[in-house]
Amino acid sequence: MKLAVFDFDSTLMDGETLEFLAREIGIESEVKEITDKAMQGELDFFESLQRRVALLKGLSLKRVNNICANLPAMNGAGETIKELKKMGYNVICFSGGFKNATIPYMEKFGLDAEFSNILHAKDGVLTGLVGGEMMFNDSKGQMLKKLQRLTGVTPDETLVVGDGANDLSMFQYAGRRAAFCAKPVLRQQANIIIEEKDLTKLLNYL
């Protein structure tokens, strides 16, 4: 068995979930500015996540779920997942985003598991609070290390794919480290660099 771990936003999915949600209430540019700083490594991920989610307070949970269920897949995502599974990989998604998006995506594309965060809602509306498994700069690395211990998969049998600073923590535990249309801070630590928005390009390196 081998392990492939993908980031979700701007990797498996073409865009940023929080920006799609922010567009609904006219604050996309404000949220995008915070996201960009976090992905460049200029802002602590935990703080940036809290700040962005707080701006969504009052948004209908029903509307959130509808938007999240219809997010655009990255070009080549479905084909790449299918090919990796044929090669014997378990394919997993780690996301600093939300289960509202990652669970529908997992079910649609046949991912083996997803680890992400939960938007807190009360009486059918977002409270502006968030919790979950992927809240901190090092969450993805720590989760990957746990999965490797549980499954017996080694770093040499592990592929990770991401685009931003919060994906860095995974890289030290993976033999194949793919920066996908990534920020400079991630490209510097990668041994696979893909500049085209087509995930099937990853298959050329495996």
| Average pLDDT figure | 95
Q: Which architecture does the CATH hierarchy give at level 2?
A: 3-Layer(aba) Sandwich
User: What Rg do the Cα atoms give?
Assistant: 16 Å
For the biggest β-sheet, the strand order reads 4-3-2-1-5-6-7
Task: Give start-end ranges of low-pLDDT stretches.
Answer: none
Helix content bin:
25-40%
Order of helices and strands: EHHHHHEHEEHEHEHE
The CATH topology corresponds to Rossmann fold
Query: How much of the sequence is in beta strands?
Result: 15-25%
Question: Would you count the extended β strands for me?
Answer: 7
Description:
The two termini are 15 Å apart. The protein has one domain (2-205): HAD superfamily/HAD-like (Rossmann fold, 3-Layer(aba) Sandwich), CATH 3.40.50. 39% of the residues lie in helices and 23% in strands. It has a seven-stranded mixed beta sheet with strand order 4-3-2-1-5-6-7, with helices on both faces. The protein is an alpha/beta fold.
